[in-house]
């Protein structure tokens, strides 16, 4: 990767996330240490609930800030406020933290650190997704995440060193404040990169909507509700894993908590970096959003099943390791990509409302439940505890996966709506009614729903490329996608792939033909054929999903707006998959196609189109022949005398007469063509015979 070719916007995002992740990791280690060092086990869930409650209040406030100042403005204000509070907290801890047996100051210190773990992260991603499109997200989120992971690794080493110092509490809080101060300064200096143009229509009339009204609007749509449920299930599972992990750590490492957490988060950060450098980009580009939001619940599901089978309490360490590594590298990125289907101006605000509010609220609820039922969680043998915990996790992970699937479907639907390609009443643009009794040209039966199965069987048995294309074209242009069942869609998908491969081959071959005058007609014919096949491919797509206007999608692919093009590509990937989408997009936008430097000559052209029946292409091939290449092309010309199209036969005869120098050969073929059904061809042939007989 060439660093200096990275857009400045991406570089700044990497730098900011490096700082944010570093501060989050140091805040996480500090809060965990405060929690386990100064509070009894029965107080741990209660403290987690209190911290989550504070996060809820702050999430409401930041949602308001995002609506008024955009995500980057809210982040500037929030980081500045956190820095001031942290510096004040350092002074308070230094002056009063070591006095007395009880230390109520650590209650607020812990809650503050827990807030710092979540709040800047949510605001950062709200800011990032506001300036990125789906293509940029898939390409660069791995790099941005890697920058954050490096920050986490550095934070882990720093915490391990600080843990051995006398004023460890003060130093930990002070370093978090210092890092966030740098973040605030960067945001002030580079605010121009993150301002979003207003793409949201202002209300024409009525009173201004307050913060709670805006919040209700945000969480009232199907999209926001589904994302909220995704956050809820993920937060429940992660909270269960985290709380039980803390219980185990307190039991096993009570003497050296700072050092344990420093090392643990360092190792997890190293694993994150490996994922982000070598795996994340492949997952996002090939598997897309669906893969990103489903990997973590699948892994936790497998871990829980293994724990049940082997009755091992140490599986909680494995579960925590997986959540720490995968959540921040893949799962959370996938969640943020879901916000790309929201209008840019609303992304930061919805992120704060859905993720920033829902996650701490869920954590607070789960903590309250665990606090009130702590005896139930800890009763019985170790095997009973393991079984109880992991059976709950298994059920929740299954629900998590189901909601992830629903979110992905809604994500695609929202993208379609956002680019204006939604069809409220499913239909195919330009198609005829399914009851049309027009006699078919290339098919044996009228195109009616009751004949679909037989016609599809007929098409699969057509061997000729052009003949099959004609049959497929007629079939899909006259069928109604509303009448298509699963089997019909399976046939449509297979024919789409076959035609796509054929169209790709044709396009690539056309791209290799020389751009000289003798090849101009052939190139033009091939270009027209590719455009014709693209139209049929688009028609077939409308049969795969009749709620999407794929002709509009194709227009978006040709648009100059990179965001619109990226959103259209994302929709196609949801229907076709990454590989077929890449091929289709390259056909629509040839400039994006990798150019083949090897040109083809007449010999290769004759071989390629030796059995071609398309009149335009055959005539184009005939025009490529000259005196020098006539010997190679003579057999092709004479084979065209039997072509079904009279214009091809006429062109072949004219080419033959202009290139053949032997009178006996000319007379031989002219005598054959003198009886041609076309009066023009027969007249030319007879006149040529007379000129040979009477020179």
Beta-strand content bin? under 5%
State the assembly state of the protein chains.
single chain
Main β-sheet description:
none
In CATH, the topology of the largest domain is named Growth Hormone, Chain: A
Number of helices: 26
Give a quick rundown of the structure.
The chain is mainly α. 76% of the residues lie in helices and 0% in strands. It has helices spanning 8-38, 44-96, 105-131, 134-162, 168-189, 211-218, 222-252, 257-278, 280-310, 315-338, 344-372, 374-378, 382-418, 452-461, 465-478, 486-512, 520-544, 550-557, 562-576, 578-588, 602-608, 615-623, 630-639, 646-659, 663-673, 679-693.
Describe the protein's architecture and organization.
About 4% of the residues have low confidence. This protein has three domains: 403 residues, MFS general substrate transporter like domains (Growth Hormone, Chain: A, Up-down Bundle), CATH 1.20.1250; 144 residues, no CATH class; 86 residues. The N and C termini lie far apart (73 Å). 76% of the residues lie in helices and 0% in strands. It is elongated, with a radius of gyration of 34 Å. The longest helix is centred in the first third of the chain and has 53 residues. With 695 residues, the protein is mainly alpha-helical.
């Amino acid at each position: 990767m060439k660093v200096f070719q990275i857009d400045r916007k991406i570089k700044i995002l990497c730098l900011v996330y490096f700082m944010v992740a570093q501060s989050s990791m140091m805040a996480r280690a500090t809060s965990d240490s405060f929690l386990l060092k100064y509070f009894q086990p029965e107080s741990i869930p209660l403290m987690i609930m209190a911290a989550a409650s504070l996060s809820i209040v702050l999430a409401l406030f930041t949602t308001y800030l995002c609506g008024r100042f955009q995500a980057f403005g809210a982040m500037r204000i929030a980081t500045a406020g956190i820095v001031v509070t942290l510096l004040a907290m350092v002074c308070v801890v230094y002056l009063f933290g070591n006095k007395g047996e009880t230390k109520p100051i650590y209650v607020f210190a812990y809650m503050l650190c827990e807030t710092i773990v979540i709040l800047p992260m949510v605001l950062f991603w709200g800011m990032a997704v506001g300036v990125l499109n789906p293509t940029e997200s898939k390409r660069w989120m791995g790099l941005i995440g890697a920058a954050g992971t490096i920050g986490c690794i550095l934070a882990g080493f720093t915490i391990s060193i600080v843990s051995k110092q006398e004023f460890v509490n003060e130093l930990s809080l002070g370093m978090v404040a210092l890092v966030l101060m740098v973040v605030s300064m960067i945001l002030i200096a580079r605010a121009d990169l993150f301002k979003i143009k207003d793409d949201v229509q202002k209300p024409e009339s009525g009173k201004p909507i307050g913060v709670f009204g805006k919040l209700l609007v945000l969480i009232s749509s199907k999209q926001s509700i589904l994302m909220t449920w995704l956050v809820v299930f993920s937060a429940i599972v992660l909270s269960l894993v985290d709380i039980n992990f803390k219980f185990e750590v307190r039991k096993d490492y009570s003497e050296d908590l700072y050092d344990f957490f420093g090392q643990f988060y360092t190792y997890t950060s190293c694993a994150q970096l490996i994922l982000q450098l070598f795996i994340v980009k492949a997952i996002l580009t090939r598997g897309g959003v669906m893969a990103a939001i489903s990997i973590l619940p699948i892994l936790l599901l497998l871990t829980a099943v293994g724990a049940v089978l082997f009755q091992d309490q140490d599986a909680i360490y494995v579960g925590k390791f997986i959540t720490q590594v995968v959540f921040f590298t893949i799962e959370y990125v996938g969640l943020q990509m879901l916000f790309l289907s929201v209008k840019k101006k609303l992304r930061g605000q919805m992120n704060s409302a859905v993720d920033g509010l829902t996650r701490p609220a869920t954590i607070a609820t789960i903590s309250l439940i665990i606090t009130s039922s702590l005896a139930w969680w800890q009763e019985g043998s170790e095997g009973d505890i393991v079984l109880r915990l992991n059976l709950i996790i298994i059920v929740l992970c299954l629900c998590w996966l189901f909601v992830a699937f629903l979110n992905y479907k809604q994500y695609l639907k929202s993208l379609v709506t956002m680019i204006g390609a939604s069809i409220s009443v499913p239909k195919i643009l330009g198609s005829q009614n399914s009851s049309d009794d027009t006699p078919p040209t290339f098919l044996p039966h009228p195109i009616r729903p009751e004949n679909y199965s037989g016609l599809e069987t007929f098409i699969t048995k057509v061997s000729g490329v052009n003949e099959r294309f004609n049959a497929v074209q007629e079939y899909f242009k006259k069928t109604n996608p509303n009448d298509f069942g699963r089997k019909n869609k399976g046939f449509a998908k297979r024919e789409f792939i076959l035609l796509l491969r054929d169209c790709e081959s044709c396009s690539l071959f056309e791209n290799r033909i020389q751009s000289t005058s003798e090849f101009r007609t052939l190139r033009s014919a091939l270009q027209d054929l590719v455009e014709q096949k693209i139209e049929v491919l688009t028609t077939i797509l409308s049969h795969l999903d009749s709620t999407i206007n794929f002709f509009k999608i194709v227009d978006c692919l040709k648009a100059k707006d990179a965001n619109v093009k990226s959103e259209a590509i994302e929709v196609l990937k949801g229907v076709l998959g990454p590989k077929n989408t890449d091929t289709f997009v390259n056909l629509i936008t040839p400039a994006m196609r990798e150019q083949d430097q090897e040109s083809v000559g007449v010999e290769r052209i004759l071989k390629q189109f030796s059995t071609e029946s398309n009149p335009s292409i055959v005539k184009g091939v005939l025009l490529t022949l000259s005196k020098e290449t006539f010997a190679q092309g003579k057999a092709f010309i004479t084979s065209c005398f039997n072509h079904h199209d009279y214009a091809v036969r006429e062109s072949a005869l004219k080419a033959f007469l202009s290139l053949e120098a032997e009178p006996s050969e000319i007379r031989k073929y002219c005598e054959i063509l003198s009886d041609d059904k076309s009066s023009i061809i027969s007249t030319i042939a007879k006149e040529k015979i007379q000129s040979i007989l009477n020179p």
